[in-house]
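Title: Comparing notes on inverse folding

I've been comparing how different people in this forum approach sequence design from structure. To keep things fair, I'm posting one structure and asking everyone to reply with a full sequence. Here's the target:
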């Protein structure tokens, strides 16, 4: 008889090229005790608390076959409170609990966010504008231009601020943390005041202050690499990157801890307390490249001057040098 055609076994399916992230929540319980001030519901006054039994983030990078844990929190305690003082609102939200980054266990992982000095009347006007936008009728302004200008002025006069902070405490007690804050400071001096008629947005930018800081023990690098789950970001590669940033002055090595702080205000940018120019990000080797470029420019200028000298000038000059 005829032999049946042989069938080769199917090749194993190739792993997906795109990355995928999964977030799992388990056992969320929340308790609320809020009351709504008249005409204001975006930031109701009161407290809330609760617990999250488990919060897990897993990630599968492109070409990986399995999901790997990047962040896991257990028995997470949640609390939030909003208060009012003389028409200004403050709100704080916290989440605290043990957990892990990558495969590294931590004694405590903490998150905190804060709103400070939010003018309640300005917030009520912002609610009207938000509702008009959500309803699909942004062209039908619920308040006039004068009310919008008053809202903006109230925002700025209250000097509001918003901040977020993340921290992790290792089993040996070392703490790594990072955070940022955005705030509006006092108006600049009259000498730098904007001309009349300038949009309020420019006045807001003139008073804007932004800062961000980081404190990262070098022993946290394996945890960071596990959290990133990127084959190109292993602990050794992260250490080399941090060393390069330190050489450029972007980070500082404080007894085995990487620290850095950047601030912006009134048009000035500082990094670790020193003036910083975005142009330095364009140079490959920091100050060394700047010195090389300066030397190249001087050599090019000398060559150009030599070409512009008259034909008989060079021998005369050489004769002077020999005398």
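Reply #1:
Here's my take.
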């Amino acid at each position: 008889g005829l032999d049946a055609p042989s069938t080769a076994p199917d090749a194993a399916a190739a792993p997906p090229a795109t990355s995928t992230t999964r977030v799992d929540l388990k056992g969320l319980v929340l308790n609320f005790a809020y009351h709504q001030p008249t005409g204001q519901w975006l930031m109701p006054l009161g407290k809330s608390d609760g617990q999250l039994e488990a919060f897990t983030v897993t990630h599968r990078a492109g070409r990986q076959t399995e999901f790997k844990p990047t962040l896991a929190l257990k028995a997470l305690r949640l609390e939030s409170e909003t208060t009012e003082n003389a028409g200004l609102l403050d709100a704080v939200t916290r989440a605290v609990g043990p957990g892990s980054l990558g495969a590294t266990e931590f004694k405590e992982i903490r998150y905190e966010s804060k709103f400070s000095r939010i003018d309640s009347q300005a917030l009520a006007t912002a609610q009207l504008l938000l509702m008009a936008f959500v309803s699909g009728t942004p062209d039908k302004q619920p308040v006039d231009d004068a009310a919008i200008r008053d809202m903006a002025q109230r925002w700025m006069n209250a000097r509001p601020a918003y901040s977020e902070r993340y921290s992790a405490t290792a089993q040996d007690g070392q703490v790594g943390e990072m955070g940022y804050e955005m705030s509006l400071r006092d108006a600049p001096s009259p000498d730098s005041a904007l001309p009349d008629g300038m949009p309020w947005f420019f006045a807001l930018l003139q008073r804007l202050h932004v800062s961000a800081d980081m404190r990262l023990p070098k022993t946290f690098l394996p945890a960071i690499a596990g959290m990133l789950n990127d084959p190109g970001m292993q602990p050794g590669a992260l250490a080399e990157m941090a060393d390069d940033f330190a050489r450029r002055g972007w980070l500082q090595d404080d007894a085995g801890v990487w620290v850095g702080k950047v601030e912006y205000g009134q048009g000035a940018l500082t990094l670790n307390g020193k003036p910083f120019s975005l142009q330095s990000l364009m140079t490959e080797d920091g100050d060394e490249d700047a010195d090389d470029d300066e030397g190249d420019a001087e050599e090019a200028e000398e060559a150009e001057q030599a070409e512009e000298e008259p034909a008989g000038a060079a021998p005369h000059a050489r004769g002077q040098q020999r005398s």
